[in-house]
Amino acid sequence: MHTSKDRHPPAAAGTRRVNYRYFGVEQSGTCGKCGARTLAFCAALDDLGLERLAAIRHDVRLDAGDELFDDGDAASDIYNLVSGCIRLFKLLPDGRRQVTGFVLPGEYFGMVTADRFPYAAEAVTESRACRFPRRGLEDVADRHPALQRRLLHMAWDEVTRMQGQILLLGRKTPQERIATFLLTLAQRYARIGVAASPLLLPMNRGDIADYLGLTVETVSRTFTRWRKMGLIELPRSSEILLRAPDELAELADAS
Amino acid sequence: MHTSKDRHPPAAAGTRRVNYRYFGVEQSGTCGKCGARTLAFCAALDDLGLERLAAIRHDVRLDAGDELFDDGDAASDIYNLVSGCIRLFKLLPDGRRQVTGFVLPGEYFGMVTADRFPYAAEAVTESRACRFPRRGLEDVADRHPALQRRLLHMAWDEVTRMQGQILLLGRKTPQERIATFLLTLAQRYARIGVAASPLLLPMNRGDIADYLGLTVETVSRTFTRWRKMGLIELPRSSEILLRAPDELAELADAS
DNA sequence: CGTGACATTGACGTTGGTCAACTACCGTGG
DNA sequence: CCACGGTAGTTGACCAACGTCAATGTCACG
User: Fold this and answer.
1) Does the nearest atom of strand C lie within 7 Å of A13's Cβ?
2) Would you state the pLDDT for residue B36?
3) Which residues pair with residue B129 across a beta bridge?
4) How confident is the model at residue B35 (pLDDT cuts 50, 70, 90)?
5) Is the backbone peptide bond immediately before B198 cis, with ω within 30 degrees of 0?
6) pLDDT profile of chain A (255 residues), mean per 10
7) Residue B159 in 3-state DSSP?
8) Contact predicate B132/B34, CB 8 Å
9) Mean pLDDT of all residues in chain B?
10) Which residue in A41, A193, A186, A167 sits closest to B210, CA to CA?
11) Chain B: nearest CA to A147, how far in angstroms?
């Protein structure tokens, strides 16, 4: 039952045709010139702290489809996304997949207290990230309360975001879920300075469906319906124009 | 559609008939004798830190059904549950409800960076909690890295727990959800030293349904089916005997 | 062009939600 | 002690929404 069985190619499948010129700013090896720095946790640090952080930092470059880590891998590192998009997901034994989140530039992921990751991470698009040994990062954090506090606040924000997702999955209709998804994505883009119209969908229909607890067919049909109603336009499958965001907002919260 | 419309009595409704002798240890006004201290975030503190924390701490006592705070209330405080059980939930405009979590002794809640709570909190049973002004708590945390780190780790654990719930809501069948719920509850009880057999259900069917994204009817029918299959016993509606935890575990992860 | 992955569309059926009745339980008051 | 009332829980009948299965369309790249 449900969906998403046998739908997971051996990773590193087809690169998606999306233009990511403006998707997360480039990083040039040094933290000083990193475009994500005003967003990421490193923003909390002074020069000394930044230096300490840079000393333990590793550069990670990923192509679309690349696996960062798998469910069950040793959780020794924490990642900070600089550009691109990462999907985090869990699998059930029979192959059903739940995407628990999409990571956008400036967000960190991989934070767990256990010694193994309880989920997997893959690049949705070409991406760049900083990798920090958890131990080392925590040492720096212990010496820089501002960083520690920043990490804490970002974790709290993540909890808040996930509560919204739990409401969505537990009680919203397919329409409401999809509308919420589009509007939330647009908001997140706005926060990181990415143009929100046309709205770029780095992830494919399968990712969206597995994120929203639906099937690709339901996502597809809903888009088609809205296109026919004039609420949206779909110049390409990875690009959406929100023609009537207000009506979508009503659908998202609906009575 | 869905469920849980008009199902929310004006709060402080009927007290639930559950024996909570063993449910969370009593606190006697001073942190030194608090039974939750080895579990809660205060465990990370030395005597000086504990003193500083005690200085800003307020005692909260709640009867079953009492509201702690509502969605939209000013989020000036953070709570640490000492005994009892709290439900956190969000409502949609038409009354659909999603319980985002049940708080057990030793866990903290109310952590948000925004200035308003994005969810409500009510006591499921008679409960006791510590209330700390967020500002004050963060000041203490800045001076005690061990506390700060502890708060961070507890937040990370919460994120991990919520990812499991997201998988449950997005991809598990009703059977799987309910089995997962029972087993997870038993595990959490074990952690805090509460007897797991018979398994006490402080919350009613409506709470369970709203937590699992189901209806009361589905929860009820599933219990009945399992009872007839000999997997569980229901001496009273708030008490469950897990006769075949292994089979339940299979149902929980199912193929 | 040809190929393969992704997306869309259609037909169909099952599952779990809806609605409604009934039962069990417990506390209260006569 | 029993009758009553109210709430929570259970059970049954019904049905529509969304998932399943399958075919077709589209697009990008070689």
Assistant:
1) yes
2) 83
3) B60, B81
4) confident
5) yes
6) 44 43 51 82 90 93 95 97 96 96 96 97 95 96 95 96 98 98 96 90 97 98 97 95 95 79
7) helix
8) no
9) 89
10) A167
11) 10
Tokens 């998988």 -> residue: B167
Amino acid B39: pLDDT: 87
| Per-residue confidence (pLDDT) for residue A29, from 0 to 100 | 60
The C-alpha atoms of residue B36 and residue B128 are separated, in whole angstroms, by: 11
Answer whether any strand C atom is within 7 A of the Cβ of B213.
Answer: yes
Q: Which residues contact A160 (CB under 8 A, 6 or more apart)?
A: B112, B113, B114, B118
Predicted confidence (pLDDT) at residue B10 exceeds the cutoff of 60: no
Torsion angle in degrees (nearest 10) through CA of B40, B45, B49, B50 = 50
Q: Give how far Cα B195 sits from Cα of A56, B22, B24, Å.
A: 45, 8, 11
Cβ–Cβ under 8 Å, residues A35 and A25: yes
Residue A68 C-beta-side C-alpha neighbours within 13 Å: 34
DSSP-assigned beta bridge partners for residue B156: none
Distance of CA B176 to CAs A20, B33, B180, B229, Å? 40, 40, 6, 16
Q: Give SS3 for A101.
A: strand
| DSSP-assigned letters across all residues of A179-233 | HHHHHHHHHHHHHTT---SSEE--S-HHHHHHHHT--HHHHHHHHHHHHHHTSEE
Q: What is the pLDDT of residue B112?
A: 96
**Percent of chain B predicted with pLDDT > 70:** 88
The amino acid sitting at A244 is A
Our CA angle for A104, A105, A107, nearest 5°, is 75
Output DSSP code: residue B98: E
**Confidence (pLDDT) at A3:** 41
Q: How many other CB atoms are found less than 10 A from the CB of residue A24?
A: 23
**Residues 88-147 (B) with a CB less than 8 A from some CB of A:** 88, 90, 92-94, 96-98, 100, 111-114, 118-119, 138, 141-143, 145
